[in-house]
Amino acid sequence: MRYFIVDDDTASRRMLEQIITDGDLGIVIGEAENGVEALPLILSTHPDFVLIDFLMPELDGIETIEQLRAQGFQGQFIMISQIVNKEMVGEAYEKGIEFFIHKPINRVEVYSILKKTVEQFRLKDSLLAIRESLAHIETANMTQRRRSVKEVVLSILNDLGIIGEAGSGDLVLLIEFLMNRKDSTAPLPPLKDLYEAVANDKKTDPMEIKKESKSIEQRIRRAIIAAINNLASLGTIDYTNPKFEYYAPRFFDFQEIRLRMKEINQDNKEMKKVKINIKKFLQVLYLETTEKFNQTL
């Protein structure tokens, strides 16, 4: 990913650049101290993401974004601000900004937000490829159904910020398996049976299936933990964010989310082990997918 940083504070620009570089999130292709200086540079370099300070002399962050959009810039914006109130957040949402970085800059928060934006960026390419494929290839109804289910699951995983996790592919296969059962209203099978059902699509030897089942469980567990971290980070930035309000209490024990938010606010380098309920997560993901999928029929 290619980033451009607009901030009148040199120390903030250096720190953001270091986080991007150290986290292998991409490269910083340019920077500016204010909006006036940034406009021609951004329009000529076409970065994927612009990290922009809200309060700047001459031209503030919102005004800079308005001028860039008016001149055809299609990249995404991430707002940097020391002061966040509902009015400012509302105005920023209207301009297409979904993410905020608080000052003073918190490394854990910044990395989590940038990682999520990268995942969303890649998801758009993935969804575009799916749409193009569906437009040019006529397949059986079941194949179309499976691809549609995959698209719905990916959109939910993207909202949770885990589209780039290794376990996301396992979650897609698992929900496809559940959706294709003869009795879709039946209770979820035991987790062991679900993992083996997904493993059967990849392996044939019984020992290999057993080994793959354990790997699937581990990948899914890591993906769920990542989702908790992403939602907690989102909640610390904006407690009223629609995605946080919708997904956090549905997929998780909200007390665990609150504890992780507290750790992020305190900038703890070593996070405590979080409790997760895999079966609850899968049940909610299945119900969410079923509801959204039926809306497209």
UniProtKB/TrEMBL annotation:
Presence of keyword Phosphoprotein: yes
Keywords: Phosphoprotein
Modified residues (4-aspartylphosphate): D53
Superkingdom as given in the UniProt entry: Bacteria
Biological processes annotated in GO: phosphorelay signal transduction system
Domain Response regulatory: 2-118
Pfam family, any one: YcbB
Entry-linked PANTHER family: TRANSCRIPTIONAL REGULATORY PROTEIN GLNL, TWO-COMPONENT RESPONSE REGULATOR
This protein's name: Response regulator
